[in-house]
Amino acid sequence: MKPLSLRVLRLFEEMGKDRLDLHVLFEAAGNEPTEREAVLDAIDELTGAGMLDACGSDFYGLTERGKGAISQS
User: Fold this and answer.
1) How far apart are CA 14 and CA 34, in angstroms?
2) Are 51 and 66 in contact (CB under 8 A)?
3) 73 pLDDT above the threshold of 90
4) What percent of the chain is helix, strand and coil (3-state, nearest 5)?
5) Domain ranges in the chain?
6) Backbone angles phi, psi at 53, to 5 degrees
7) Cα–Cα nearest to 14, from 3, 29, 24
8) In this structure, are residues 28 and 39 in contact, taking their beta carbons and an 8 Å threshold?
9) Which band of pLDDT confidence, cut at 50, 70 and 90, is reported for residue 4?
């Protein structure tokens, strides 16, 4: 898993939430468009790996598999 993907997962833990808005997930990077694009790539990776679920309206939910990845890191 890429370091940025792990940072995205850890945001769920830091915020104490199982569901976060895309704008909050952008905090895993900076404010530059390229950094935000990297966060979108990380979200795609995590969604494809079954660690995040797209919940609609720019929200993503942490799955049990995602929680397991956080605890193993």
Assistant:
1) 24
2) yes
3) no
4) 60, 15, 20
5) 3-72
6) -115, 135
7) 24
8) yes
9) very high
Token duo for residue 8 = 């995205």
And the tokens for 17?
Answer: 């939430």
CATH topology of domain 3-72: Arc Repressor Mutant, subunit A (1.10.10)
Q: Are 29 and 40 in contact (CB under 8 A)?
A: no
* The pLDDT value given to residue 63: 98
Smallest Cα–Cα separation from 9: which of 35, 34, 46? 46
Residue type at 69 in one-letter notation: A
Distance of CA 34 to the CA centre of its chain: 16
Give the distance, in angstroms, between the CA of residue 68 and the centroid of all CA atoms in the same chain.
14
| 14-72 residue pLDDT tens | 999 999 999 999 988 888 889 999 999 999 999 999 999 999 999 999 999 999 999 99
